Amino acid sequence: MEKKLGLRAPNSPYSEQECEEIIAKLEDLLDGRLDEGQCAAFEDMVNNCEYCLEQYRIEKSLRRLVREGLNNVVMSNKLIASIKNSIRSIRSQG
Question: Is the pLDDT of residue 73 over 80?
């Protein structure tokens, strides 16, 4: 079995599998794909593990930086039209 690196801290209160599941759920939480009950349960788990909490904070900060950076991006109408055409083309192929 191949080991995944960086998904579990040695002092984690969770098993390796639980840590991997927690880290994988970070995306769901930050993308708003968890309901209120799932969010509360997940946040409790994250708050019990320093490593998981650190990963959560890093991911949240990165997403904030990207979002703020994208607000400052200025695109030409030609680029916007090109992107829209590419999306339409991809959708029509699927």
Answer: no
Q: Identify the CA nearest to 42 among candidates 21, 63, 57, 60.
A: 21
- What pLDDT score was predicted for residue 8? 66
Q: Are 46 and 18 in contact (CB under 8 A)?
A: no
For the stretch 24-44, pLDDT in tens is 788 888 888 889 998 888 888
- Report if pTM > 0.90: no
Q: What is the DSSP letter of 43?
A: H
What secondary structure does DSSP assign to 1-36, as a single string? Answer: -PPPTTS--TT-SS-HHHHHHHHHHHHHHHTT-S-H
Residue 5 in any domain: the answer is no
Q: pLDDT value at position 5?
A: 44
Contacts of 55 (CB under 8 A, 6+ apart): 23, 26
Whether 16 contacts 56, CB under 8 Å: no
> Total domain count for the chain?
1
